């Protein structure tokens, strides 16, 4: 276990603050770190636009959390909702829990992963002969309280998509084999990326993602040159390149930690909440997920900027990310869904950007 972790860390990661452009994608990822209940982010864009690089760069910025020592589910010693059954039993017996501090982890879900690898398996033989529940945890156990990243999510098998949806919605993963059932907490931020040319995502999966960032290839020649130069210098000497950005990385990490603790104090006034719901209603957004996510994301962006009240500009910045993938597709419409959300926002808020 420790071997794989050290191996991962020995491979240098491109620094998040060195990524040029793609502000929308970076903002969506940062807001999800501040408030994981936003519900993850789906990044759709052309190939070679830095989707995977940006998501993996997020690892450096992730804050530390308190976990129960030697627990495969990263159980929270203070929150029963995020505890495994074993930890909860220990608490009921008033046993002392050993805790440790560790970074929030990011788990990669490979495209070819089997259901057993994702959910975990039960050793039936051991259960029958020794009468104990022998459970081998899967990727969902490792991702509890962390980030689950699925690259090329639109190519993922349908049955695996269903498993992810169930866990993402309930925050629990249940494995059943031969009449033996085991449940464990699986509350994670679901981050997916994909290329729209390779096929669309099922609407019910798309709706599960709190935010949807749409990114394109950078068009300005100067910016493209800057990106190429940065990539070249990183490939030539990754350690030196990372050292140049260590200060800005630390600053952003501190900012995220401060925003996470400030989040509970941030308030959004009643009038703004009414207007958010009016926008969702006018855009014919199905369900109430759009309203909930927009409220959460607006608070998170205010916390990021060290404020305790949400402004109209905060909402304007996040609402396209929260609603664009929830609009019904009209094949005859030429306007981009993000622009459509902005237009309705300006009408209802009377806002001039």
From TrEMBL:
<comment type="similarity">
    <text>Belongs to the Mg-chelatase subunits D/I family.</text>
</comment>
<comment type="pathway">
    <text>Porphyrin-containing compound metabolism; chlorophyll biosynthesis.</text>
</comment>
<keyword id="KW-0547">Nucleotide-binding</keyword>
<dbReference type="GO" id="GO:0009570">
    <property type="term" value="C:chloroplast stroma"/>
</dbReference>
<dbReference type="GO" id="GO:0015995">
    <property type="term" value="P:chlorophyll biosynthetic process"/>
</dbReference>
<comment type="subunit">
    <text>The magnesium chelatase complex is a heterotrimer consisting of subunits CHLI, CHLD and CHLH.</text>
</comment>
<comment type="function">
    <text>Involved in chlorophyll biosynthesis. Catalyzes the insertion of magnesium ion into protoporphyrin IX to yield Mg-protoporphyrin IX. The magnesium-chelatase is a complex of three subunits, CHLI, CHLD and CHLH. The reaction takes place in two steps, with an ATP-dependent activation followed by an ATP-dependent chelation step.</text>
</comment>
<dbReference type="InterPro" id="IPR041628">
    <property type="entry name" value="ChlI/MoxR_AAA_lid"/>
</dbReference>
<dbReference type="GO" id="GO:0005524">
    <property type="term" value="F:ATP binding"/>
</dbReference>
<dbReference type="GO" id="GO:0010007">
    <property type="term" value="C:magnesium chelatase complex"/>
</dbReference>
<dbReference type="GO" id="GO:0016887">
    <property type="term" value="F:ATP hydrolysis activity"/>
</dbReference>
<dbReference type="InterPro" id="IPR003593">
    <property type="entry name" value="AAA+_ATPase"/>
</dbReference>
<dbReference type="InterPro" id="IPR045006">
    <property type="entry name" value="CHLI-like"/>
</dbReference>
<keyword id="KW-0602">Photosynthesis</keyword>
<dbReference type="InterPro" id="IPR000523">
    <property type="entry name" value="Mg_chelatse_chII-like_cat_dom"/>
</dbReference>
<keyword id="KW-0067">ATP-binding</keyword>
<keyword id="KW-0934">Plastid</keyword>
<dbReference type="Pfam" id="PF01078">
    <property type="entry name" value="Mg_chelatase"/>
</dbReference>
<keyword id="KW-1015">Disulfide bond</keyword>
<dbReference type="InterPro" id="IPR027417">
    <property type="entry name" value="P-loop_NTPase"/>
</dbReference>
<keyword id="KW-0150">Chloroplast</keyword>
<dbReference type="GO" id="GO:0015979">
    <property type="term" value="P:photosynthesis"/>
</dbReference>
<dbReference type="GO" id="GO:0016851">
    <property type="term" value="F:magnesium chelatase activity"/>
</dbReference>
<keyword id="KW-0436">Ligase</keyword>
<dbReference type="InterPro" id="IPR011775">
    <property type="entry name" value="Mg_chelatase_ATPase-isu"/>
</dbReference>
<keyword id="KW-0149">Chlorophyll biosynthesis</keyword>
<dbReference type="Pfam" id="PF17863">
    <property type="entry name" value="AAA_lid_2"/>
</dbReference>
<protein>
    <recommendedName>
        <fullName>Mg-protoporphyrin IX chelatase</fullName>
        <ecNumber>6.6.1.1</ecNumber>
    </recommendedName>
</protein>
<feature type="domain" description="AAA+ ATPase">
    <location>
        <begin position="37"/>
        <end position="219"/>
    </location>
</feature>
<comment type="subunit">
    <text>The magnesium chelatase complex is a heterotrimer consisting of subunits CHLI, CHLD, AND CHLH.</text>
</comment>
